[in-house]
Each structure stands twice: as C-alpha cells, then as structure tokens.
# Entry
Amino acid sequence: MTGEAAEGERFVRLAAAIRQRQRKVERVVAEARQVLTEFSKAEPPTLELRGTGAILHDFYTGIEHIFETIAPELNGGLPAGEAWHRELLAR
# Structure
C-alpha cells in the first residue's frame, strides 16, 4: 500500500470511529430533548434534576471521547498534565 493510500485508509478508520461515537452522543441528545419536554410541563423533583446532570455528563464525555479519538491522528497525541481536558478542548 502506498503512503497516500495508507493515509487515506487511516482517515477512513478515523471517520468510522467518529461516526460510532457520534451515534452515542446523538442518543444522549435525544434523552436530553425528552427531559426538556418533561421539564417544560412542571418543575422536576430533585432526583430527576440529578439524573439530568448524568445526561449532561454523558454528553460532555461523549464529545470528549470524540476529541480523544481525533487527537492522536491529527494533533500528535493526547495532551498530558493536570489540565489535559482543557488542553484537549483547546486543540
């Protein structure tokens, strides 16, 4: 396989991995939309609000996983150190 073909294959695999993670994030977004619809009807109990926090956390980590998938391929790897999350988003 030529260098150019190998590079193309690498990006095909990267795109497939991103699409897989994107589908997971889309499911979380659907859950969030459902919650917003329910919350528009009445003030939610505390436990439901805490559950909504879990949905928000799942969304954030889903997006972060996409960036973690991209970083090694396009940015030379994942950042290191205490602020690696912030640096990953900045890149």
